[in-house]
Amino acid sequence: MTSTIAEVDLDTCILEADRAPGSNPGGALLPGDTLRCWTHAHSIAFGKATYFQAVETCVLVKWASPGQRPRRSTRLTAALSADDAVKLYLAMLRANLLGMPLTYFATVAWTTVGLIDDAEIQAATQALMTRIREWSTRKREPIHVSWIWCHERGPHLGLHTHLLMHVPHRDAPRLGKVICRFLENYSGRALAVGSEDGRRTFKAIEPSSRTGILSAASAIRFQRRLMRYMMKGVDPNGITPKLVERQAGQQLCRALGVGRPRDQGEIAGKRCGYSVHNVGRAAFARHPVGVRLGGDTAENLLRRDGFAFDAEALQLHHIAALLG
């Protein structure tokens, strides 16, 4: 009798550790710690030797049946698809609806710390997201952090990751240090800080503000510019889907306002994503803002206005009036 082998695509699993009091974020998993898969809404005690080994394997595979085995997706993509663009745009809208404009833009160049293989970088990216979530939630007063991200491959940086994030301005320097420390610990190598070839492992920018208080209009302009920058690798032949009623059937790059899509290389596995725990559709619908406005508010805005990067400020003012 042969056993059935059921494969689990780890690219669909959003994993994080639930720490027991006194355990060290990012360190070895201790007795009493659990690993949660948000995708499957399941949490179970897990005993892998180190934290980073744990987040690379969904516990459901071990728990469900010894006959199952995990696999990492080997699907190859050459560009961001129309569905990818919609996914990232809706996540950005939900972040703004929750009062978390994405005004922190970071780039991680994995090849500068010796990570070359796509599957290796996919695992490192997932571990990085988990580390950021742990850092933000284990404070006495949790820090509200959300993000969208995409992988790109270029001749200068190789496979690298762009993250467009929300983090309170006062906490942005601390977040940068957390990311840099993670990269050093994960790779076991010193970060490149700029050399003859100009490559840096980590770089982050924020919109400038003389007063330290960012206006809604400045936040929208920053998001618009960086979102379009992240979308530069869209499928040049993509067509805007029916969900975006106002622009349905248009050429995708035209609807997004991307002048000329650029080749961002072939990538194995997941190409883009977002912080599903707070700007995912289900998480937003459970949030008090989502309950009040309706869980499908972001979808309705996209359906009505299309990829209207210039219109978000008006939408936010209208939403603020509703909540006031």
Brief overview, please?
With 324 residues, this protein is α+β, with helices and mostly antiparallel strands. The protein has helices at 51-55, 59-64, 82-97, 118-137, 172-187, 216-230, 252-256, 276-279, 281-286, 288-293, 297-305, 312-323, and strands at 7-9, 15-18, 34-37, 42-45, 69-71, 76-77, 104-109, 146-154, 158-166, 202-205, 267-268, 272-274.
Note down, in words, how this protein is organized.
By secondary structure, the chain is α+β, with helices and mostly antiparallel strands. The protein has two domains: 7-71, no CATH class; 76-323, no CATH class. It is built from twelve helices and twelve strands. The protein has helices at 51-55, 59-64, 82-97, 118-137, 172-187, 216-230, 252-256, 276-279, 281-286, 288-293, 297-305, 312-323, and strands at residues 7-9, 15-18, 34-37, 42-45, 69-71, 76-77, 104-109, 146-154, 158-166, 202-205, 267-268, 272-274. The longest helix is centred in the middle third of the chain and has 20 residues, at 118-137. The N and C termini lie far apart (65 Å). The relative contact order is 0.16.
